[in-house]
Write a structure and sequence with these properties.
Helices cover about 55% and strands about 5% of the residues. With about 250 residues, the chain is mainly α. Strands 1-2 form a two-stranded antiparallel ribbon. A two-stranded antiparallel ribbon has the order 3-4. The chain has a two-stranded antiparallel ribbon with strand order 5-6. Helix 1 packs across helix 2 (about 50-75), helix 1 runs antiparallel to helix 5 and helix 5 packs parallel to helix 8 (about 215-230).
Length: about 250
């Protein structure tokens, strides 16, 4: 069967002594898109777009740290189990950022900025302006998961099955070649959520009446998709009552 999604031939590119990881590049592009769209939306509702750029200096580092902490918590054996190297927990460029840790810590970093600086709009208005760009950044970040051959789901024979090289197949799945591309499912879902948040059909606008409601809608819409996508994944994760931690979070 002709594979629609072959495994990537490489995950890095070298330029002299510099090694560029495609995963890290996708994260940086996503951050840039989120800031750009956030500035546009913030200015459109009467704010000073520079507020968004300045708050990003606080929110982005908080978000990256929080995302890594969440990832390590969901799969601690990978870093602190038998034969593991705890230093790997610091190697973010190899993949592994939990979105809820990133969003929670990033929002907290933004909150600290708003508590200590004079801004043109409120914190809730900022969150509303950033929401579509954040979910777009998530979509772009999922492309990085493709290059790292990670965050795929159960084996499948569907035409869009993702080919995974033998060294990257989880224990117990060594004989399978193609898997659900759950990173792609989430990418598509994130694009749909971003479109929804930007366009906001009339029926939804009637529900979005308070500052912060658009951000709340982002959380609701994203988790609805993440809930079923998460049940397809087979990478290591802590289980609670037989379900993955991220399923409970969603």
């Amino acid at each position: 069967m002709q594979l629609l999604i072959p495994s990537p031939s490489q995950s890095t590119i070298s330029a002299g002594p510099l090694t560029i990881h495609f995963y890290a590049l996708c994260i940086l592009i996503g951050i840039a898109v989120a800031i750009w769209l956030g500035r546009v939306r913030y200015a459109k509702v009467g704010g000073n777009a520079d507020d968004v750029s300045e708050v990003a200096i606080w929110a982005v580092p908080f978000g990256i740290i929080g995302g890594r902490i969440y990832h390590v918590i969901t799969a601690p054996e990978k870093y602190f189990g038998a034969g593991a190297n705890p230093i790997d927990a610091l190697r973010i460029w190899q993949g592994g950022l939990g979105i809820w840790g990133a969003i929670s810590f990033g929002a907290f970093g933004a909150y600290l900025y708003f508590r200590t600086h004079k801004t043109s709009l409120t914190y809730a208005q900022l969150l509303d302006c950033l929401a579509p760009g954040v979910v777009l950044a998530q979509a772009i970040g999922r492309v990085g998961n493709y290059f790292n051959q990670e965050l795929f789901g159960r084996p499948t024979s569907l035409p869009w099955g993702l080919e995974i090289d033998a060294p990257n197949r989880p224990t117990g799945y060594e004989t399978f070649e193609t898997f659900h591309p759950t990173f792609l499912y989430e990418l598509i879902w994130c694009l749909l959520v971003a479109y929804l948040l930007i366009k906001l059909p009339g029926s939804i606008k009637k529900l979005v009446t308070r500052k912060g409601d658009i951000f709340a809608l982002y959380v609701l819409a994203y988790t609805l998709g993440r809930l079923w996508i998460e049940t397809l994944r087979i990478d290591e994760s802590n289980l609670i009552l037989g379900l993955r931690l991220s399923v409970w979070v969603s």
